[in-house]
From TrEMBL:
InterPro entries: ARM-type_fold, Vps35, Vps35_C. It comes from Thlaspi arvense. The keyword Transport applies. Keywords: Cytoplasm, Endosome, Golgi apparatus, Membrane, Protein transport, Transport. Plays a role in vesicular protein sorting. SUPFAM superfamilies: ARM repeat (SSF48371). One of its GO terms (biological process) is intracellular protein transport. This is Vacuolar protein sorting-associated protein 35. Pfam families: Vps35 (PF03635). The keyword Membrane applies. One of its GO terms (cellular component) is retromer, cargo-selective complex. It is a peripheral membrane protein. Belongs to the VPS35 family. It is found in: Cytoplasm; Endosome membrane; Golgi apparatus, trans-Golgi network membrane; Prevacuolar compartment membrane.
Length: 797
């Protein structure tokens, strides 16, 4: 009836029980104060009779028990003082056995028994044996559990263990162990029997109540683990077999799972290691039974065992040889294999959790045995292959943890790349998780500054991160978040710079492998991934140049021409994406590298491709301006061209400059072209006349721009262009261009002053400071004197 009662009824019954305990405790305390033993026993028995109730849930019963327990502590103090009650403890022990009801009688007997042991008038083992046997008289599950819990509590400091005040003969430790084991066995039986109390319709509530009581049973195992003198032999021959026998025979899933967890937690790690085979045999047997109950998450049992052993291995290098002696890995691997093979219906997340724990154990105990690591991954592949598609998010998370473990342990992706089953596990991830794992791999490489130095390893690596470098089946890049996509591609770009080998032949193989993978990336990825590949190849070109040119390899000769052919083909793909501005920049970089290698035809070809892109693909006016300045800047630095090729390219550049849309852009591009005809470090390429022609042409364009501004806005506008041209005049004047005379500089200064005055005195904020600074520089040069000062003396300000 108690199980059908409501919360309000239980509260009422609890209140009545507490009131009864308090009422009888009041009279008991009066008797204690009067040292009246008879009255003490009378009211203490009445008080303890309140614990005979069957109406309360375990939680409420615990509240009632604690009220009584507090009173029993006072009672024990009274019994311990013979001068107060005047009766020898032996007689007192006999007297309390005459209490009317068995439950009060047993509580009193345990209390007096504690005093009896403390008096040392009888061996501790005899009293304890007597008590544990007589407690069999209470067979109600809840009442019996709390009674035996009280017995365990009052006897904990009175066990006849080694070093104790109550130590007995040679078998004293066995006596202590026997008492605890017997009490544990009886408590477990009572705990299991709770599920059979009351109607089956309240099974869920029963299981919850049983779960609340489990610590009462588990405390016995904690005591066993703390008994002094229980060595490995005793644990192996007596303690573990007896406990496992009880665990297996109780045939209760909740009890089996909890007690196995207790065994793993309370006994020393070295004991687990030395009894691993026995423990795993029981564990495997229980797993087969427990996994048939989907409500119990029993994978934790094996997982906790492996975690304990892993931590033990990590605690000291000195213990690792013990793992080798007992062949721990083989035993654990076989046990997990049996569990997974037997339980075909086991959730995939359970199997993955076991594999993660086994791999963690392997990496801590046998970090040098990569074959063990690969074996665990291989077993994971077999299990994953039995599943049509991995959709469980929790299982996916465990697979990521499995793949991350080697990266964290070795801090070196190169080691992980030697594991043949590593990529096979990754193949079972969905596209999103595959990308997450690929990012973790790249982050590991960056964090540890790992260098992948062979083409074979690069091939494996790029197969692992293929989710980032190409569209997987069914993946639409348009649906990706732009910020996430850019972060992924930037990570791939950084990764390319971590691929390096001092041997040019191997480095070329690496570049070819990377190119093969990147070319499958599609138009959105190429602008991110091609530039680092190009610069990596250019670094190889310059390395070859420093070594003296070609290197003949076993398969493909490594020489700059071969590399430039690959670069040309690669950039051509990028230009068709289309991404012409980026392709043009890369063409110019390659042209400069070809110039450094003294390969004029190659450099000319790259410039030709850059000009074709400019003509056919770049239509935006701002992009055209940027492209022209890049072309001019690159061409100015290159010194490999002969007169004819240089004239052709220079003519093209100046022509494009003059055809820009906006006059100011035209002007700036044209005066920038003047540097193409005057290169300081190139003998024979100082054509002062053509420099002057460029500057005069720029001046005409600037004048036209001023006139257009006057016609459209009624004002001539800023004179910035004239000031910029003046600075170019001064630059070439200082460089010794004979065609730039002081009178040219003088005339341009007067022109600027005229333009500024003609604008109704409204000088602009931007041009005036620039012009003032230029004039200040001229005055400084005049005052400095010397050869340069003499040249500037002819300029009148």
């Amino acid at each position: 009836m108690r199980r059908l009662a409501g919360v309000e009824d239980e509260e009422k019954w609890l209140a009545e029980g507490i009131a009864g305990i308090q009422h009888n405790a009041f009279f008991m305390h009066r008797a204690l104060d009067a040292n009246n033993l008879r009255e003490v026993l009378k009211y203490s028995a009445l008080m303890l009779s309140e614990l005979r109730t069957s109406k309360l849930s375990p939680q409420k019963y615990y509240d009632l028990y604690m009220r009584a327990f507090d009173q029993l502590r006072q009672l024990e103090i009274f019994f311990n003082d013979e001068s107060r009650h005047g009766l020898p403890v032996v007689d007192l022990y006999e007297l309390v056995q005459h209490a009317g009801n068995i439950l009060p009688r047993m509580y009193l007997l345990c209390t007096v028994g504690s005093v009896y042991i403390k008096s040392k008038q009888a061996p501790s083992k005899d009293v304890l044996k007597d008590l544990v046997e007589m407690c069999r008289g209470v067979q109600h599950p809840i009442r019996g559990l709390f009674l035996r819990s009280y017995l365990a509590q009052v006897s904990r400091d009175k066990l006849p263990e080694i070093g104790s005040d109550y130590e007995g003969d040679a078998n004293t430790v066995m006596d202590a162990v026997e008492f605890v084991l017997q009490n544990f066995t009886e408590m477990n039986k009572l705990w299991v029997r709770i599920q059979h109390q009351g109607p089956g319709t309240v099974r869920e509530k029963q299981e919850k109540e049983r779960n609340e009581l489990r610590d009462l049973v588990g405390k016995n195992l904690h005591v066993l683990g703390q008994i002094e003198g229980v060595d490995l032999d005793m644990y192996k021959e007596t303690v573990l077999p007896r406990v496992l026998e009880q665990v297996v025979n109780c045939k209760d899933e909740l009890a089996q799972y909890y007690l196995m967890e207790c065994i793993i937690q309370v006994f020393p790690d070295e004991y687990h290691l030395q009894t691993l085979e026995t423990l795993l045999a029981a564990c495997t047997q229980l797993m087969v039974e427990i996994f048939s109950q989907p409500t119990v998450d029993t994978k934790i049992v094996l997982t906790q065992l492996m975690d304990r052993l892993s931590n033990y291995a990590a605690s000291s290098p000195d213990v690792l040889h013990e793992f080798l002696q007992v062949e721990a890995f083989a035993k654990l691997s076989n046990a997990i294999g049996k569990v997974i093979d037997t339980q075909i219906e086991m959730p995939i997340v359970g199997a993955m959790t076991l594999f993660v724990s086994l791999l963690t154990f392997t990496l801590r105990v046998h970090p040098d045995r990569l074959d063990y690591v690969d074996q665990v991954l291989g077993a994971c592949v077999v299990k994953l292959s039995s599943v049509p598609k991995l959709e469980d998010a929790r299982a996916m998370k465990q697979v990521v943890a499995l793949l991350s473990a080697p990266l964290e342990k070795y801090n070196d992706i190169v080691t992980a790349l030697t594991l043949s089953n590593y990529p096979r596990v990754m193949d079972h991830l969905d596209d999103g998780t595959n990308k997450v794992m690929a990012m973790l791999i790249i982050q590991s490489i960056m964090k540890n500054d790992s260098c992948i130095s062979t083409a074979d390893k690069v091939e494996v690596l790029f197969e692992l991160i293929k989710g980032l470098i190409k569209d997987l089946d069914g993946t639409d890049t348009e649906e990706l978040d732009e910020e996430d996509f850019q972060e992924e591609q930037n990570s791939v770009a950084r990764l390319i710079h971590m691929l390096d080998n001092e041997e040019p032949e191997e480095m070329l193989k690496i570049i070819c492998v990377v190119r093969k993978h990147l070319m499958t990336g599609g138009p959105r990825r190429l602008p991110f991934t091609v530039p680092p590949l190009i610069f990596s190849a250019l670094r190889l070109v310059r390395q070859l140049e420093s070594l003296g040119g070609d290197i003949t390899g076993e398969e493909v000769p490594t020489n700059p021409r071969k590399i430039f052919q690959i670069l040309n083909q690669t950039i051509e793909v990028l230009s068709s994406v289309p991404c012409p501005e980026l392709a043009l920049r890369l063409y110019l970089q390659c042209a400069e590298a070809a110039s450094d290698c003294d390969l004029e035809p190659v450099a000319y070809e790259f410039f030709t491709q850059a000009f074709i892109l400019y003509e056919e693909e770049i239509a935006d006016s701002k992009a055209q301006v940027t492209a022209i300045h890049l072309i001019v800047g690159t061409l100015q630095r290159i010194n490999v061209f002969g007169v004819e090729n240089r004239d052709t390219l220079t003519h093209k550049a100046t022509g494009y400059s003059a055809r820009l849309l906006k006059k100011p852009d035209q002007c700036r591009a044209v005066y920038a072209c003047s540097h193409l005809f005057w290169v300081d470090d190139l003998d024979g390429n100082k054509d002062g006349e053509r420099v002057l022609l460029c500057l005069r042409r720029a001046l005409r364009i600037a004048n036209a721009a001023q006139q257009m501004a006057n016609a459209t806005r009624g004002s001539s506008g800023p004179v910035t262009l004239f000031v910029e041209i003046l600075n170019k005049y001064i630059y070439f004047f200082e460089k010794g261009n004979p065609h730039i005379t002081p009178s040219d500089v003088q005339s341009l200064i007067e022109l600027i002053n005229t333009e500024m005055q003609s604008d109704n005195g409204n000088t602009t904020i931007h041009s005036d400071p620039f012009f003032t600074s230029t004039l200040r520089y001229i005055r400084f040069q005049k005052q400095k004197g010397g050869l340069m000062g003499d040249k500037y003396d002819l300029i009148k300000l």
